[in-house]
Design goal:
523 residues; mainly alpha; 26 helices
């Protein structure tokens, strides 16, 4: 008698059950359904199994990623069913179904919003739920996310809700769907989450930032008003510390790739140098990466968290400079240093890099002055703040620099730039000049100090051809006695910054932050 059992062919690759369900749901893989059932909504048993299984966000995203916007519109029966059931499960009290639903929903939203639609708002609504159901479903989703973030006792569940909200806001930023987050204020819930989980990382801060910048120039924004009226000092401290912690993580990612510190000679380093690492006391310490490994690690940076520092590392100097962004950076520096000067706070920092960066910018502007002079606002918005900032540091640096050596280094850098200063002033001096304007005053002060020390070093060179670092430092300090430092109070003043005057640049920055936030939520 023949056996009723038949041998199944062994698959080439074993895939998790959840991946098979993804493929079945979105009709990527051929299944056993008849032609008339191809677009049918899955059964209740399918959904129960679907949300009980551990999700694979990346695999779901990879399955949906090849589909075009039109192809998504053609399978809207499945997308409607998935979106509707995911919201119902995510807002339920059943665990782990609710957490699994949030993760699946995050990957689904990241894939859906990543398409190019002919009519973004209309097409996205058709893909997600259809015009008849979108209002109810998105309202349920936003209300459910707010409730989870505010009340759930599981911090991991709350974090997943924040990431899901981030995927929704960042993805739908150019559509009308973000308006549902305006109607349901998530700010108190997000602040409570930050209080309960101070080490929550970047997502809640990015989410608050995106919501506060949504259509803020066109309509009243509840999150913008919340931030403007914010007076809770403890919460403000948490926001500042959380942002600083995220920036520190990004910085540490670069520092961890390559140890730039010079190793002092010791028994361990000596044994390593002669090839006897096995005898070294630090033999169990992991070896530093090779040059190729370090390059691979460095190329992987920055991480998705780098979206918060985009303006810090995207600063390539080119002939068509982003005048407003450079002006904004210089204005922030002037405000920070002004606060240090007023409070007499001595800050330990990499000051030589700051002096070098400012003077290198001056050299760049001087070198390409023929091309720069035609850029709108280059003199008033860039050259004048640059000159005033350096003059301010020169006149008040002794109040906020940590030690005399840091102050001496500023003078030394200025002496090195003695040939650039007059050329910079000549290239961007206003013609005709009605009296001494702010730019001319600052440049005259810098040139005066540079010339003063240049003459002193000229006298020293007549006695001795080469000067040691100690001798150079002595000349700089002795020169203080005969130096008239600039003391114009105008160097440290600034105009109150107005967002309305920089709408175009701010909108550009917001678009970039939104694009990075999409990648952040996707990962």
């Amino acid at each position: 008698m023949d056996s009723p059992l038949t041998q199944q062919l062994r698959p080439d690759v074993f895939e998790p059950k959840i991946v098979q369900l993804y493929l079945h749901l979105f009709n990527i893989l051929a299944n056993d359904a008849d032609d008339e059932d191809e677009d049918a909504v899955p059964t209740e048993g399918f959904w129960r199994e679907f949300f009980l299984l551990k999700p694979d966000k990346q695999r779901l995203f990879d399955i949906l990623s090849p589909l075009t916007a039109n192809e998504l519109l053609h399978i809207q029966t499945q997308t409607h069913a998935f979106f509707r059931r995911s919201i119902a499960e995510a807002t339920s009290a059943r665990s782990p179904q609710n957490q699994n639903a949030l993760e699946n929903l995050t990957a689904f939203l990241s894939a859906v919003f990543g398409k190019r639609y002919t009519n973004p708002s209309t097409d996205v609504i058709e893909v997600l739920a259809g015009l008849d159901s979108i209002d109810r479903l998105v309202s349920d989703l936003v209300n459910g996310l707010e409730l989870i973030i505010r009340q759930s006792s599981d911090l991991d569940f709350r974090h997943k809700a924040v990431v899901a909200a981030l995927a929704m806001v960042a993805g739908a930023f150019q559509t009308s769907l973000v308006s549902y987050f305006m109607h349901r204020d998530l700010f108190p819930a997000l602040m409570k989450y930050i209080h309960d989980a101070p080490e929550s990382g970047l997502p809640p801060f990015v989410l608050i930032g995106l919501l506060a910048n949504y259509n803020k120039f066109e309509t009243q924004n509840v999150y913008q008003n919340r931030l403007e009226d914010f007076v809770n000092q403890d919460s403000i401290n948490l926001l500042v510390k959380g942002l600083a912690h995220s920036c520190q993580q990004i910085r540490d990612g670069y520092a961890a790739v390559q140890d730039d510190e010079v190793n002092a000679w010791s028994l361990s380093t000596t044994l390593n140098f002669v090839g006897l690492r096995a005898l070294s006391p630090e033999r169990n310490k992991p070896s530093p990466p090779t040059e190729e490994e370090a390059k691979a690690l460095f190329n992987a940076l920055p991480s998705e968290k780098g979206c918060v520092m985009l303006s810090a590392y995207s600063h390539n100097l080119r002939k068509r400079l982003d005048i407003h962004l450079h002006s904004l950076a210089l204005g922030i520096l002037l405000r920070l240093l002004g606060a240090l000067e007023r409070t007499k706070t001595r800050l330990h920092h990499h000051w030589p890099y700051l002096w070098a960066s400012l003077l290198n910018l001056m050299r760049f502007l001087t070198q390409y002055s023929a091309d720069m002079t035609y850029l709108r606002g280059v003199r008033d918005e860039l050259c004048t703040p640059l000159a005033r900032l350096i003059a301010f540091c020169l006149s008040t640096g002794d109040t906020f620099l940590p030690d005399p050596a840091s102050y001496d280094d500023l003078f030394y850098k200025l002496i090195e730039a003695s040939d650039v200063l007059p050329k910079f002033k000549q290239a961007f001096a206003q013609r005709p000049v009605q009296g001494a304007d702010s730019f001319s005053k600052a440049m005259d002060a810098l040139i005066s100090v540079s010339s003063h020390y240049h003459d002193l070093f000229g006298d020293q060179k007549g006695r001795k051809k080469h000067q040691s670092p100690a001798a150079v430092q002595k000349v700089i300090r002795d020169g203080y006695e005969s130096l008239n430092l600039p003391s114009d109070e105008d160097f440290g003043t600034w105009q109150k910054w107005r967002e309305s005057s920089m709408k175009a640049d701010l909108k550009k920055m917001i678009r970039t932050a939104v694009d990075d936030a999409r990648l952040f939520a996707q990962k």
